[in-house]
Specification:
The chain is α+β, with helices and mostly antiparallel strands and 217 residues long. Helix content is 24%, strand content 33%. The chain has 4 helices and 16 strands. It has helices at 2-13, 28-42, 62-68, 72-90, and strands at 44-46, 49-51, 55-60, 99-104, 113-118, 129-133, 136-140, 145-148, 155-156, 167-172, 175-180, 187-189, 192-194, 196-198, 204-207, 210-215. The protein is elongated. It starts with a helix and ends with a strand.
């Protein structure tokens, strides 16, 4: 399912202004297929299940690097999402944050590419969690992620229905929890009001009119 979603998004991504450039030659979706195949090939057995690579290097020819340059940032985001979705569908876990980079290999010809996946441990070897809001991904480290109207919050929400320091997302051992900080209008997870709740992959945190999505990767 994750790869199918990635393919549909990539099709939309290369429509319009990019369509002419991708009528022939290497297609971005081919790279996505190879990345997920690399995950399957390099998965290992961990204490709590299968562990997949979390850091990927995609080597392209000079000509394909130039073709991809106009939307490279968007492609990297989509590849990262494809990795996370494939891991979720296959029951894989990561030991560090997902990272994808594109490099140029002068020895490769047009249409040729290489993908290398490695397992790179995050700080302390603890599970990784992140929040996605407005297309921005925020990795949850040792310090809590503060959400509210104050400029010093990690996620600033300009909404009169949101308190100055509304809520926090914290690491608690191997888990992640969202904690309402006594806000006026409350915090919801998947539509239900909460004071404190352990987060699961895919949970949606609603604060005022803003939705943050938690990902356990």
């Amino acid at each position: 399912m994750g790869l199918q979603q990635f393919e549909r998004r990539l099709e939309r991504l290369v429509e319009g202004v990019f369509a002419k450039a991708f009528r022939s030659g290497l297609q971005p979706v081919e790279v996505g297929r190879r990345v997920t195949r690399e995950m399957d090939l390099r998965r290992t057995v961990g204490v709590n299940g299968m562990i997949a690579p979390n850091r990927f290097t995609v080597a392209l020819s000079r000509s394909d690097t130039e073709r991809f340059a106009s939307f490279a940032d968007a492609l990297l985001r989509e590849l990262g999402d494809a990795v996370r979705e494939h891991a979720k569908s296959e029951g894989y876990s990561f030991v560090g944050p997902v990272d994808v980079e594109i490099t140029t290999d002068e020895s490769l010809g047009a249409g040729e590419f290489l993908v290398a996946g490695n397992t790179v441990e995050g700080a302390g070897g603890l599970p990784v969690g992140s929040l996605t809001v407005d297309g921005r991904r925020i990795v949850i480290a040792e310090e809590p992620i503060a959400i509210g109207r104050l400029p010093e919050c990690d996620v600033v929400v300009n909404d009169p229905n949101v308190s100055r320091r509304h809520a926090e997302v914290r690491r608690r051992g191997n888990d992640f929890v969202v904690v309402d900080l006594g806000s006026t209008n409350g915090t919801k997870v998947n539509g239900a009001g909460v004071k404190e709740r352990r987060l699961a992959d895919g949970d949606e945190i609603r604060i005022g009119n803003t939705t943050l999505r938690f990902q356990a990767s």
